[in-house]
Amino acid sequence: MVKELLENFVPQDHIGWLILIAILISFCVSSTSFPAIINVAKSKNLMDFSGGRSSHSGSVPNLGGIGIYLGIVVTLTTIGAVLDTKILLLILGGVTLLFFLGLKDDILILSPRKKFTGQLLAAGLLILFTNTRIASLSGILEIYIMPYWVSVMFTLFVYILIINAFNLIDGIDGLAGTLALMAVVAFAYVFYRYRDISMVVLAASIIGALVPFLFLNFSTRNKMFLGDTGSMILGFLIAVLAIRFINTSELSSNALYSNSSPILVLAFLFFPLLDTLRIFFIRLVIHKKSPFVADRNHLHHRFLFLGFSHRQTTAIIVVTNCILIGITFMFKNWDINWQLAILLVSGTILYSLYFLYNWLKGGRKTLGA
């Protein structure tokens, strides 16, 4: 009977139930695992201690990525049987590889070279075995179909960029997790429009795992951090969603977002990418040091210096990025180069408001003196 049900099951006819079940399973697994993870972290002293460039006080467990990993993996292995098993298994393989690399880094510290190698391997497996890659830029700067190896190398670059962008912005309470949640919800929407059930369920499993984590991340009593485990997993999965979305949109000129998918991806991930490129410029060009040497030059640190709390900073950044996404959707049918120009101009203006605020605040102080 079960075999007959599975053989006759059509996921597209039950997408609402699949989303709900995926969120519930992931939420339940993650929320029930977090207390145990916190207890183990405290008993084994696996904590993130304040000091140096840290923006928090006291000691906090930094193994939140374990609960997120468990929620996503259990969800995909239970529901995945009726979906695109091949790509989900490869995604789980890549996530598991990054999970163990991140876990080792959170506990013992791992060299950047080993993390970079693991990221390349996880991304390379998906690209080669599923051929899910960015084959063109949809006419951005008149770039259309790219040669195969150029496409593969560019897709690998995008994976590494997104993974490390989420790793770098994980500096204050809720920022990386809330930005990830915002991006995943946006991807869930566009994949729902495409009826790509496997990706919608993947997005739902991430949402279900992130919600209980964010509750703890914002908490003052049982606080928990993502750690490198969580930030790398989230960055990798969001990169998977981004590249799959662009790839799906490129397959047909009649696809709903065929003329805007790269721009929408940039909008969904604008702040992590902007802050990462900004930080790399400051470290390489201005300070003449390795881009992987930690400092307090991130935009969220600038907000903290102005007196904003962690929650206020996260809210301002996420709301700003949501506004940018809304603007991008408004112009999604325009010429793609105009879309890019509007995105860059509006994004620059929105994220420059901080500097304007800082300048006005400084000016008022000077006048008051």
Summarize the structure.
The chain is mainly alpha-helical and 369 residues long. It is 72% helix and 2% strand.
Q: Figure out the total of helices.
A: 14
Helical coverage, percent range: over 70%
Low-confidence stretches: 363-369
The largest sheet has its strands arranged as 1-2
> Structurally, how many domains make up the residues?
1
Order of helices and strands: HHEEHHHHHHHHHHHH
Overall pLDDT confidence: 86
Instruction: Quickly give the structural class.
Output: mainly alpha
Taking all Cα atoms into account, the compactness measure Rg is 21 Å
Cα end-to-end separation: 81 Å
Biggest sheet features: 2 strands, antiparallel
User: What oligomerization state is this entry in?
Assistant: single chain
Number of beta-strand segments: 2
Outline, from the CA principal axes? globular
Q: Strand fraction band? A: under 5%
Keywords:
mainly alpha, two-stranded antiparallel ribbon, 14 helices, globular, disordered C terminus
Topology:
Layout: H1 2-8, H2 15-43, E1 47-49, E2 59-61, H3 64-79, H4 85-107, H5 112-130, H6 148-168, H7 175-194, H8 197-217, H9 227-250, H10 261-268, H11 270-286, H12 299-305, H13 310-330, H14 336-368
Antiparallel strand pairs: 1-2
